[in-house]
């Protein structure tokens, strides 16, 4: 009898779950050990759960979401045997979150919490999904519940982000500091992640050297950590070293093919005079964005004022899945590029409703007001953006200066 479609799917899922990792890091070795153990004795569930979690750690260490497919395969195999297995359901929820299936991630987290209201992993997933879905107050409440149950790196890290989005950088830094203090030296990636998030606060505030030190510390914790390489590339570009910025961004992109990184690489190469290399990087932005990150591609097209129609289609499609602060701001800017200033103003105001003070949001809000004839208020916001960080994004910073009559 020929194998059925179900049989083929099961073999594919198992092969993905038990795939041999290509690297030689500590987590790669852990995966290899668990795979051998499972291949020898596949019946016990616990090794499968450990394998799924190891795949998640590999995805985080390498900033490569592709490894969540391996973790998801593990979750599917366990849930096929034990549909109510809570660790596997949490693993599946994490994969849904990373896949931008935010509604489904939130729903599954809530199902887990219905069985155990104190499940820390499910609370973290729920808070993250709520934030992406635009349910800011709900995310605050869920994150506070997580903090009340267990003050820890995941709790402090989320609190740091939420305080930043509320326009309170001092509280954000305090929480990120607490997250660092709560880190586990045996697992340095979460520590590196917090360092990068804290460094971004310094970056937004215009403390380029402070940000650079944070990115360096992250690289000391996890060598060649892509988010830290991206941060250092931004710093190098801000300091006028475009060649160095391009080299750092290229290293990050080689390890972690993200849309944002390809965009930065293109900007760095263009600033270095490498027009051909810039065009190649911008082509990657489109390829990666259409496959996995419509929001960043829409932001790129709107920032460059290229194909505003596609930018608007992409971001409206993305708004169906996530309505968070930054998605809403990209929609505002795409509407501005299309000349729909009233609709752009509504979305920009919504993006800033919780007090978020990032330079790009301030610039967008100011430019929209200027377009509506509110020159004084608009210019004030644009100046605030440039005062925070005059290098916040090459195209936007140049456009901001032009709006104020300070650049050509």
UniProtKB/TrEMBL annotation:
It holds the Pfam family TPR_19. This is Tetratricopeptide repeat protein. It comes from Polyangium fumosum. Gene3D superfamilies: Tetratricopeptide repeat domain. SUPFAM superfamilies: TPR-like. InterPro entries: TPR-like_helical_dom_sf, TPR_rpt. Residues 1-21 are annotated as: Disordered. It comes from the Bacteria.
